[in-house]
Amino acid sequence: MLSRSDIGHQEFSLFVTEVEPRLSRALTGTYGLEVGEEATRDALAYAWENWDRVSQMENPVGFLFRVGQSRSRRYRRSRVAFPEVRSDELPHIEPALPKALEELSERQRAALLLIHVEGLTERDAAMAMGISRVTVRRHAERALSKLRDFLEVGDG
Amino acid sequence: MADLTTQTRDYLEAVRNPVTADSIVDHPVAPIIDRRPNHRGPLVALTTAVAVGLVGLVAVLLQPTDPEIARSQIVNEVIGGSQENSYYAVGFDTDGILCAETGASFELSRQSQGVCGDTDQPADPAYQEVGAVAYQGESFVALAGWVPTTAASVTAVYNGDVRRTLELTPIPGHDLYAFGAIDDAQARFIEIEIRGETGEIIQRYFPSIGPSD
After folding, report:
1. What is the rounded average pLDDT for all residues in chain B?
2. CA–CA distance from A65 to each of A48, A114, B23 (Å)?
3. Is B114 helix (H, G, I), strand (E, B) or coil?
4. Chain A residue with Cα closest to B133
5. Mind listing the pLDDT tens digit for each residue in B194-203?
6. Does the N terminus or the C terminus of chain B have fewer Cβ atoms within 10 A?
């Protein structure tokens, strides 16, 4: 018979399977590979520590993004660098995409990733970032516009 | 080429380092520490410490004698707040933009933390719907901010389970309440619950968090 902690562990594993890719992409895309991984780890550790509460949340990705953002504050870098794309492995990706992401501000990357890549509503993204809905929308629009300009593509 | 959203998702998926549940559950959570590598040798560290000490001494000697001036970095016209040992304040900056500010003791006032109305439009009087900022001290947390008057009550939640009901002060000429609090607790994660007339949560807000050291 499974104990309560075993059940909690199983539920948490399923939760991580579902949530971790979205959370990790958002934090990695905002803060870079190394800090993004640390922030994801810190956020998921918080989720495990507060599992009774986090497991009931409607928008855990937004909430945990905020946790990762808060906890990574001390070891963030002023400038992030994204690794280059190997065209043989990812032929459908613009080779200049990493450089284009580096050109965006931290908030622009966060807004772009939370809304357009991970599908959060503007309201949830605004809560996750601690800014107003109007501002988060503006950051996301500017991010897409800058990416298009940098990559010289017409459609995002 | 796929659209930019798909490209970005696929790129990040390819380069990120996945974190597994087992790696979280099987390892105790370490306290928050500065994880930046420190390559400085002892001599450099000692020299740096002496230099920082001297700069600190000069800074203390040059501080204004009026604590009201020294403390307020952002808020110029105070609407509400506390000027105790640690402090919080809500009011307007020199451009008339609504701001909230918190800080530590007089000696640490240069580390104060603030948030203002929509910073993308500093001249726009349409403030953010909610704004709040928190300051983490060694053994306390200070919180300041504003909410719409549609809020019936506002609760600060520290570390996920410590709850404090905040006193709301009307801001003259605006449909906003100011709030603030100083709590004798070390809060690593702060959330604000905004409730309506019937007690239902109408919004959760996570204030930006200032220095903790």
Report:
1. 71
2. 15, 9, 19
3. strand
4. A130
5. 998 888 888 8
6. C
Residue B39: the pLDDT is 43
pLDDT in tens, A32-81: 998 899 899 989 998 898 888 888 888 889 889 988 887 776 666 667 88
Nearest to B21 among A12, A98, A156 (CB): A12
Contact at 8 Å (CB) between A140 and A113? no
* C-beta atoms of A135 and B19 within 8 A: no
Average confidence (pLDDT) over B27-49: 47
H-type alpha helices, B31-176: 42-62, 67-71
Q: Residue range B104-109: average pLDDT? A: 48
Q: Give the CA distances from residue B38 to residues B35, B41, B47, in Å, rounded to whole numbers and listed in that order.
A: 9, 9, 15
Contact A133 B129 (CB under 8 A): yes
Tokens of B15: 């380069």
Alpha-carbon distance of B83 to B34, in angstroms, equals: 31
Chain A 23-82, CB below 8 Å of chain B: which residues?
Answer: 24-25, 28-29, 33, 36-38, 40-42, 44-46, 48-50, 53, 66-67, 70-71, 73-75, 82
Query: Residue B127 pLDDT > 60, yes or no?
Result: no
For the four alpha carbons of A40, A60, B155 and B193, in that order, the dihedral sign comes to positive
Give how far B142 is from chain A: nearest CA, Å. 16
CB count in 10 Å sphere of residue A61: 24
Q: What gap in Å lies between CA A151 and CA B70, rounded to an integer?
A: 47
Q: Which long-range contacts (CB under 8 A, 24 or more apart) does B82-87 make?
A: B82/B180, B82/B182, B84/B182, B86/B135, B86/B137, B86/B140, B86/B142, B86/B182, B87/B142, B87/B182
Q: What is the rounded end-to-end Cα distance, in angstroms, of chain B?
A: 47
Rounded distance, CA A67 to CA A39, Å?
Answer: 8
Tokens 């928008």 — which residue?
A: A59
Check B11 against A97: CB less than 8 A apart: yes
Taking CA–CA distances from B12, the nearest residue in chain A reads A25
